[in-house]
C-alpha cells in the first residue's frame, strides 16, 4: 500500500519533525508512506472572502498536482465524518482489500481546502469539531495510520 500525506506549508517545528520522523520509521514496515508538502500561499492577515477563495484555490491547484487519477483521496475537513481508530483501521483494510493501493490524505492550509480539492476527495474525515494547527495534524494523522496498521494486524498497541 502506498500512502501519501499531502499538506500545505513547510514544517518548521523541530519537535513535530521528530515525531513525524518516528512514525514514518515505524510505518515503513507496513506501507510506503510519504509526506508531500506544497507551498502555502502568502496572504495578509485580513482577507476578504474572495481573497480567501483565491488563496485556497492556488493551494488547491498545488495539492491536486500531486494526486494521480487512481488515488483514493481522503480530505481532512472539519465537516467530515468522525471515526474511531478501529473504524479508520477498518476503512484502510477495506481499501486494500478492494484494490485501492494508493491513498492520499490531504491536509489544507490555515484557511482550509478549496472546493476543487473537496470535490476530488472520495471521502472527508474529521478528527474533531475542534480546530488544530495543520502542522500538528500531520503528526496526529501519522500516529492514527500507524495505529490502524497495528489494529489490522492484531498487534498490541496502547489504548
From TrEMBL:
Q: Does the record's keyword annotation contain Methyltransferase? A: yes
**Quick one: where is this thing mainly located?**
cytoplasm
Subcellular location, record wording: Cytoplasm
Q: Name one GO molecular function term.
A: methyltransferase activity
Assigned EC number = 2.1.1.177
Q: Does the keyword 4Fe-4S apply?
A: no
Signal sequence span is none
What Pfam families does the database record attribute to this sequence? Answer: SPOUT_MTase
Keyword annotations from UniProtKB, A to Z: Cytoplasm, Methyltransferase, rRNA processing, S-adenosyl-L-methionine, Transferase
Q: Which domain of life is it from?
A: Bacteria
Q: What reaction gets catalysed by this protein?
A: pseudouridine(1915) in 23S rRNA + S-adenosyl-L-methionine = N(3)-methylpseudouridine(1915) in 23S rRNA + S-adenosyl-L-homocysteine + H(+)
| Gene3D superfamilies associated with the record | 3.40.1280.10
Q: What biological process terms from GO does the record include?
A: methylation
Give the residues the record marks as binding S-adenosyl-L-methionine: 76, 108, 127-132
Enzyme kind, highest EC tier: transferase
Q: Which family does it belong to?
A: Belongs to the RNA methyltransferase RlmH family.
Stated role: Specifically methylates the pseudouridine at position 1915 (m3Psi1915) in 23S rRNA.
Describe the protein's quaternary organization and the partners it interacts with. Homodimer.
Name under which the protein is recorded: Ribosomal RNA large subunit methyltransferase H
Q: Which gene encodes it?
A: rlmH
